[in-house]
Design brief:
alpha+beta, Arc Repressor Mutant, subunit A, Dna Ligase, domain 1, 2 domains, 3-stranded mixed beta sheet, two-stranded antiparallel sheet, about 15% strand
Length: about 130
Amino acid sequence: MTKYEMEIYNIITASTEHPTVEQIYAQLREKYPKAVMATAYNNVNKLWKAGLIRKISVEGMPDRYDRIMKHDHLICQRCGKLADFSFEDLTASLRGQMGEGFLSYDLKVFYICPQCREREKRKKTT
């Protein structure tokens, strides 16, 4: 692994914020000021293709990246906030329904976060 790959891997796996490539790049520049945006994009893609990090894609939002550890995500339909969540593991059920071809799953649940619900509630009362 190159120094850039290792640093980007560390940035992603240490984060609980699900950073975008732009956010990863900003952190990378703190340690390697001469790094360019293409370095961040190329290395993030390399790590993702190697299965070392997860890509979280949501329509209308930039891709975000996460550690591999098994967990699910809650995504607010209003503000786009992305939060880790652990639902009951569905692997056995899915494997039973799909058979041998089943590899894995990535569960994203869309909802309205408590902060947005509170904002909407305040708007209705004013």
